[in-house]
Amino acid sequence: MTAVAQDQTNRNKHPYHIELDVFEGPLDLLLHLIKENDVDIFNIPVAQITEEYLSYIEAMETLNLNIAGEFILMASTLAHIKSKMLLPPDPSQEDPEDEGKDPREELVRRLLEYQKYKMAAAQFDSFIQLGQDVFVREKTRKLHAKDQPIELAEISIFKLIQSFHKILDNIPLDITHDVEKEIYSIDECAQEITSFFKKRRKNKVRFMEMFQKIRSKPKVVASFLAILAMIKRGALVVFQLDHFDEIELIATDQLYQGDVHYDETEFTGILNTESDPGISPGPELGTADEQTQIDS
Amino acid sequence: MSKLKSILESLFFIADKPLSIKQLEVLLPEFSKSQIRQGLTEMLEADQNSNRGFLLKEIADGYQFRTHPDNSSWVSAFTKAKPTRLSRAQLEALSIIAYRQPVTKPEVDDIRGVDSGGVIRVLVERGLAKILGKRDEPGHPLLYGTTTDFLSFFNLKNLSDLPPLQEYTELGEDSLKKLEQIFPETKTIEEALAEENILPVDEAEDSLSIQKPLIGA
Which residue of A134, A240, A242, B30 has the smallest Cβ count within 10 Å? Predict the structure, then answer.
């Protein structure tokens, strides 16, 4: 029975039982086919496996599943190996390294490598896990005297940006057609943040709270840039008590003193030192005005 | 029970994190390091097959009381915490990061045969993996490794406590020989970590590289 015919009978038996989406990738699918056909991984019948592989991809297509490029790439790799095995060795190809080498070797290596970690993953899943099988004491809440400074851990900029992404995700999608262009400057936002701190008469604000009332993306971006600028100037400090805790902003004395203004030159220094041209977002990062054009 | 063990028990009872020998040494200047070690060993042994509700465990290079695994259903009913199960993709990427650290994203992609960027980001966000630094090679790719929380999450003493990677099952002798040719001797995780020249991550640079997709969006 050919692979396709076999597939057909399988499908007739369980018309809706096609385990396609459970495969983590082309290697996972190939391992499945090798196991199902009970073939030696060191001696893969490429023609047979390729045929079955392709029929799976076809089934995916009929189910209208999005086929990831990786699956197509593997199909072409299989076809390439198949053709290499059919053809006699090319005498013009003077590569002694390739001489007598099984064209399947690289694929076998990848399959075995993947298999190792696939099994390790299953093992991890069976481990005793915190919060599921075993539990520990919850974080002990310490009481702080009012005047005592709270012990805070310094956090990296990554955490701050992660938090920022959360804020962006929380902005409701604008359904109305608003073609008005909003323009915010970093300075404007910095002044707002400063007055926000002054009004609250408290020098500590949760990072998320800062953005609660802002409903437009350009404003959020400009405010975030303003916060970064203020951190750079030393007017604000970012802290996090513990992992997964909320990030908090603390105003320093500098924020309360005098009238500090921020402008687009705030970021030019950083941009110019950027060594990798591939990831340089260009000079427009500096100006909040430009920022406003990217939201739509 | 000796005075030392009594004190240790009180400390473990109140601690919300595993306590390391170093921390205990500082906390207990009255006792020598070997005394503390001895006490800990005795406590661990006593708890080994105990059916007491909480047991002392060696976790993440420290010591911590953890509830008895057999009582999980009652404890979770009380804490109402929903278990944080990892998806298969996350487990795969995490096991590659754990066994191959320091490892780059393209290396994880290559082993899994699929793009793992999203999965790795989730692992970093959940605190199970972290950026160790950058590899000293063109392009300075970011290097990933596991965290202390990873050890804590999977009830592990340290990285050497990870079970050895299993090779392909049900192999004949011939195949095993071939396997040895394909995978020559492997380094331990500690060796791999020690050999890699990890460059520190320049925060300003990385804030920009992370911002990039945001600007392109």
Answer: B30
